Amino acid sequence: SHNQVDGTFDCSSGHFNRHGFLCRHVFCVFAILGMDNIPENYINCRWRKNPLPDHLREKRHKFLLSKVTDLKKELEIDTPSQNEPKNKDALYEDLLGVKAHVMVGIKNPNKCPNKGHRRFKSVAGKGKAIKKATTNQKVPFKQGECSKCGQMSHNKHTCDENRMSDEEYQSLLKKKKDSIDFLVNESDDEDDKLDEEEVEVADETDKYDEDEDED
Q1: Does residue 11 contact residue 26 with C-beta atoms inside 8 Å?
Q2: What confidence tens digit (pLDDT) does each residue in 133-148 have?
Q3: Model pLDDT for residues 17-32, shown as the tens digit of each residue
Q4: Where is the stretch described as Disordered (predicted)?
Q5: SS3 for 152?
Q6: Residue range 81-94, pLDDT digits in tens
Q7: What are the phi and psi torsion angles at 8 (to 5°)?
Q8: pTM here?
Q9: Second label for 115, Cα 20 to 30 Å away, from 7, 22, 38, 122?
Q10: H or E segment and range at residue 29
Q11: Cα–Cα dist 178/111, whole Å
Q12: Contacts of 51 by beta carbon, 8 Å cutoff, 6+ apart
């Protein structure tokens, strides 16, 4: 309801008296009347930016500080001094409520065997292995012999050269060189002969072309 004389609003739900702020029914009346602002008498101090005066705010801070100081003193009285020596085991016993074990019965697990079946050596096999280990020593490198003359330091491919004197060896090298030069010269002569034949064929071709032009 709206009292037009004093400008007050009242709702049968009593929401403002119980909670300190208006209900939705009163806001509907504000919308019907075209009111844009809430009247000042319906805005409590606790909904504003500064709900408490400065002197009350200062008293509240002092009270809070004294309360924290009292709690700090009580904790200091109840908490034992940190200077008292205390080992880790006793500290864990107090925190967890259990006693620490002196002896640890857990050990490393047994090693698991590898996959497959290992080979069992017989007595004879073991004797052979021992004999082989004792006789398996480094043997000096045996130089090969020539299959023609039976001498060392050369083979059948170089046997004649190693048994020759220096003069014979030089003459043999010269013969090899002469034979190589002969083969090279022969190949050059064949190339020159082929070039001459090509020139003759070209000349005959040109002469044939000239005869046809005259006809």
Answers
A1: yes
A2: 555 556 555 667 766 5
A3: 777 778 878 888 888 8
A4: 183-215
A5: coil
A6: 555 545 777 777 77
A7: -95, 160
A8: 0.23
A9: 122
A10: helix 24-33
A11: 79
A12: 45
Q: Which of 76, 94, 74 is nearest to 86 (CA)?
A: 94
CA distance 52 to 60: 10
Query: How far apart, in Å, are the Cα atoms of 59 and each of 50, 69, 173, 206?
Result: 15, 15, 125, 134
**Residue 93 to residue 100: CA distance in whole angstroms:** 7
Determine how many CB atoms are found less than 10 A away from the CB of residue 197.
10
Tokens 């702020």 belong to 21
Query: If you search the block for the tokens 């009346």, which residue do you land on?
Result: 29
Query: Where are the domains positioned within the chain?
Result: 2-78, 181-215
Type of residue numbered 90: A
Cβ partners under 8 Å of residue 58, min gap 6: none
Can you read off the two tokens belonging to residue 50?
């500064």
Q: Which two tokens stand for residue 202?
A: 């070209």
- Arithmetic mean of pLDDT, 112-135: 64
